[in-house]
Amino acid sequence: MGAPDAPIVLFVCVHNAGRSQIAAAFLERRVAGRVIVRSAGSEPAERLNPAVVEAMAEVGIDISAERPKLLEGEVVRAADVVITMGCGDACPVYPGVRYEDWELDDPAGRTLADVRPIRDEIERRVEDLAVRLIGQAESSERIDARPSGRTR
């Protein structure tokens, strides 16, 4: 859980089984406790993409206990920043919420080898987001932090 005044970031993709889960896990590791991180999907899958779970395990992040969650309007309204990843018009737009759209390949149906570059690109974008949210000096302090659990 973050501080009461911590910004809330919501990552959204269609199935909440790949891209948004990767991004949420990287941001949580990067800024542990200084940003509230959530993820959801406009049409959540039944489970996470196994290749995504394996790709994240390769970089020391266990997301195997995560489950896809349905995107709800109140979660979007509560967010300070909403990062969409291919959900198109399914993501509601509210005044006062900052939106960014990250065009990324969907890892659905791809092999582990195909998921790695997607994971790495998401990590690069999350690094940039972390710097914009909390600043360079604070962000770099947490680069190797690996919290044991995630909440969303």
Distance between the termini: 9 Å
- The tally of beta strands, per DSSP, is 4
Give the CA-based shape. Answer: globular
Low-confidence parts lasting 5 or more residues at pLDDT below 50? 139-152
* CATH fold group: Rossmann fold
One letter per element, helices H and strands E, the order comes to EHEHHEEHH
The major beta sheet can be summarized as: 4 strands, parallel
Structure write-up:
The protein has helices spanning 19-31, 50-58, 73-78, 112-134, 136-141; strands at residues 8-13, 36-41, 81-85, 98-101. With 152 residues, the chain is an alpha/beta fold. It starts with 7 loop residues before the first strand and ends in an 11-residue tail after the last helix.
Task: Chart the SSEs and their pairings.
Elements: E1 8-13, H1 19-31, E2 36-41, H2 50-58, H3 73-78, E3 81-85, E4 98-101, H4 112-134, H5 136-141
Parallel strand pairs: 1-2, 1-3, 3-4
Helix pairs in contact: 1-4, 2-4
Summary keywords:
single chain, 152 residues, alpha/beta, Rossmann fold, four-stranded parallel sheet, 5 helices, 38% helix, globular, disordered C terminus
Could you write a compact summary of the structure shown?
By secondary structure, the chain is of the alpha/beta class. The protein has helices at 19-31, 50-58, 73-78, 112-134, 136-141; strands at 8-13, 36-41, 81-85, 98-101.
